[in-house]
Every structure is written in structure tokens, then in C-alpha cells.
Amino acid sequence: PVTVRALLIGLLLVPVNAWWLVQIEYVRYSDNATTSALFFNCIALLLVLLGLNAVLRRVAPKWVFSRSEVLTVYVILVIASALGGHDQLQILFTTITWVFRNATAENGWEDELFPHIPRHLVVSDERTLERIYLGGSTLYAPGRLDPWLGPLGWWLGFAVVLVWTLLCLMAIFRPQWDRERLNYPIAQAPLDVTSASLRPFSSSLFWIAFGLAATIQMVRLAHNLWPEVPAINIGVRNYTFKGMPLSAAGAIPISSYPFSYGMAYLLPIQLSFSVWFFFLFARLEMVLSAMMGHTQ
Fold first, then answer.
1. pLDDT-derived band of residue 16, with 50, 70 and 90 as boundaries?
2. What is the average pLDDT across 17-21?
3. Which of 10, 123, 204, 235 has an alpha carbon within 20 to 30 A of 283's alpha carbon?
4. How far is the C-alpha of 73 from the C-alpha of 41, rounded, in Å?
5. 238 in helix, strand or coil?
6. Residue 296 and residue 292: Cα distance in Å, rounded?
7. Cβ(33)–Cβ(85) under 8 Å?
8. Terminal CA-to-CA distance of the chain, rounded, Å?
């Protein structure tokens, strides 16, 4: 059952989780936790809760979290991450201010765009825009939040309606999904690590894979901090063909991220096959089109 304790802990962790996402995805742009379906920030916080549970089991057994409580916290964080993650509500502040901040006499936005923008959905106060774009100020001085309250209230209402609509659609389609026996691979990871047997942690293959992936990432981190450490380049490299018609395929990105192997392992074979097959098929279509003289 869902308990009040689990709800409170989940809600208390939402601001911490949001700050973490903003730092790594927006401020420092060091990683994108929410661009892959299995959010590593939520898995990390889930593991922290499991570690806390192990301590509580020794020192205060009556305070140990049940599996349903841990999963409740995880679900809250996943939903919050999906809403506040990369290219979602993170970019709302620039979306509702960009036009007014960058309008000039040359681009004519004031005449062409301003009349069509609902003012209750945006922030147009010049002094407020100057503070957010130039910095050297604070949001928490008296009166600083006032220009934001109205627009953010409207967008919050929109987000709530959107989430409710998606939940309703899920309720409609769920019976058919069950009849078709669709699996939910990204749900398997939290279910496994919270099982009574802690199945992944008792597997030697899991620790070998974890150690390999962690070693690669630690070496890459060490290279960023100390360039004299040899680099392990697993990032995206773009390969192109020289000369027509193969060059019409454009750049072919090749990478080798450990997390992508893990995600592919969780996917149904038909889906993982489709990911690479249709990418190559689309590039082949571009080559065939070039051979027929269609290059635009």
C-alpha cells in the first residue's frame, strides 16, 4: 500500500532531484539524465534508499521501508524527472522570455510577434528580463517573484491537465496492452533491485558489467580532470563517405556507450532490431534518391 511516509519522502526529494537535473542538464550541461527512458538519477536515488534500508535494518528495524514504499518514492521521482527534465519544463523560463528579451528593430518581432502572444503566459517586464539574462541578482528579494507568479501559474495548470490527460489515455489503453501481453522493460530494473532476493546484486555477471562500465566512466572522468590520463573515447563520432552517391547518406554517427548496451538488453528484440535497421534503411533511401537525381 501507498503510505503517507512514502509520499512525504518522495515529495521532499522532488526539489533535490530537480536541482540535480538542472545542474547537470542545464547549468553545467555535463550529462543528460532524462534523455534515455531509464533515468539514472532516479535509479541512483533508489539505490540510496536501499542503502539506507540496509542501515535501518541493523539499527532501527521498525523504521525499515517496505518494497511498496521504496517503489512509491521511485515513481514520484520518475514522474517529476519526466516533467522537469531535458527539453521539458527546464526550458520554460527561456521559452516565455526569449521573444521579449531578443526583440530588436531589425528583426521586427515587436510588430510581427508581440500582438499574437498571450501576455498572461509570458514574462515581458524589461527589468525582470535583465535580471534573469544578465545575472548578478537574486530571485528571492521582495517583489522579484511577482512577475513570474501569473505565467508560472498558468503553465503549472497546463502541466497538471497534460499529466491527467496522459493518465486517462493510459487507463484506456492499459487493458489492450495487458491482452497483448506487452512487457515493460524499463520497469524491470527497479523491480529487480527492490526484490526480496536482490537478484541483480547476487549475479557475478552483473558485477562484471557494472565494474567494466564504471571503470570506463571513471577513466573518462579522470581524463577530463587530468588530461595526462589516457582517454577512452566512446562518444559519438561521425563518419561520412566521400563522393556521390554514398555521401548523400550524410554523417553516420557511431558510439559505444555502456548504458546503451544495458538499455538494448532490456528492449524486446523486435524493437532493438528496428532501432538500427530503420536508421540504416533511411540512409539507404537517401543514397538511392541521390542515384535517381534527387539531392535536395
1. very high
2. 91
3. 235
4. 13
5. strand
6. 12
7. yes
8. 58
pTM above 0.85, yes or no: no
Over range 90-102, report the average pLDDT: 88
Mean pLDDT of the chain: 88
Q: How far is 109 from 191, CA to CA, in rounded Å?
A: 51
**C-alpha span between 96 and 148 (Å, rounded):** 10
* Residue carrying C-alpha cell 497546463: 158
> Would you say 151 and 121 are in contact if contact means Cβ atoms under 8 Å apart?
yes
Cα distance between residue 230 and residue 40, in whole Å? 26
Q: pLDDT at residue 1 above 80?
A: no
- Band (pLDDT 50/70/90 cuts) for residue 203 is confident
- Check if the beta carbon of residue 245 is closer than 8 Å to that of residue 291: yes
- Reduced to 3 states, what is the DSSP secondary structure of residue 232? coil
Rounded Cα distance, 280 and 274, in Å? 10
